[in-house]
């Protein structure tokens, strides 16, 4: 049975600096996802370590360091989105990690252009605009890390009358 889920999305410093926040958020709303939490945050080293707690183990210290430094380079916009199978829906809308491999029509495919080869050769981050939770368990951890319960809202959208 399809589940109503919440997931975390971070509009990374490159998305904010390029003025793409509104256009990106519109895509999520167009897909029927509801914003139940939002804020702009300047990520610090502690939050970067908690958010990317397993990145160093999976990909090594250089990947963690480049990513953490990038995420602290400017403000991020944190969103909690809610909807039916929200995690999968958001991942589909965002596209794969490396923008040059992302399909046209996805956020990364339409608005970003860096490649894995470029990032590896230059020891830089993939400027891919967005972080999106990878699975429901990760989403639960990330939503709780970024948003206390008091910052999450319950309300009904006009569209929900037709969906539920």
TrEMBL record:
Residues 4-154 form the Nucleoside diphosphate kinase-like domain. GO terms for biological process: CTP biosynthetic process; GTP biosynthetic process; UTP biosynthetic process. GO terms for molecular function: ATP binding; metal ion binding; nucleoside diphosphate kinase activity. Its cofactor is Mg(2+). InterPro entries: NDK-like_dom, NDK-like_dom_sf, Nucleoside_diP_kinase. Keywords: ATP-binding, Kinase, Magnesium, Metal-binding, Nucleotide metabolism, Nucleotide-binding, Transferase. Its EC number is 2.7.4.6. It comes from the Bacteria. It holds the Pfam family NDK. Belongs to the NDK family. This is Nucleoside diphosphate kinase. The lineage of its organism: Bacteria, Bacillati, Actinomycetota, Actinomycetes, Micromonosporales. The gene is ndk.
């Amino acid at each position: 049975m399809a589940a109503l889920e919440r997931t975390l999305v971070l509009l990374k410093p490159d998305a904010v600096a390029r003025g793409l926040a509104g256009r990106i958020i519109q895509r999520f709303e167009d897909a029927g996802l509801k914003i139940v939490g939002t804020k702009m945050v300047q990520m610090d080293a502690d939050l970067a370590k908690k958010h990317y707690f397993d990145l160093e183990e999976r990909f090594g210290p250089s990947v963690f360091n480049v990513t953490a430094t990038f995420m602290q380079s400017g403000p991020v916009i944190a969103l909690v989105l809610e909807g039916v199978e929200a995690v999968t829906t958001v991942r589909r809308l965002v596209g794969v990690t490396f923008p040059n491999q992302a399909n046209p029509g996805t956020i990364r495919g339409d608005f970003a252009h860096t490649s894995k080869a470029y990032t590896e050769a230059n020891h830089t981050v993939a400027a891919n605009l967005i972080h999106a939770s990878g699975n429901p368990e990760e989403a639960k951890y990330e939503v709780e890390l970024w948003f206390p319960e008091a910052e999450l809202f319950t309300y009904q959208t006009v569209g929900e009358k037709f969906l539920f």
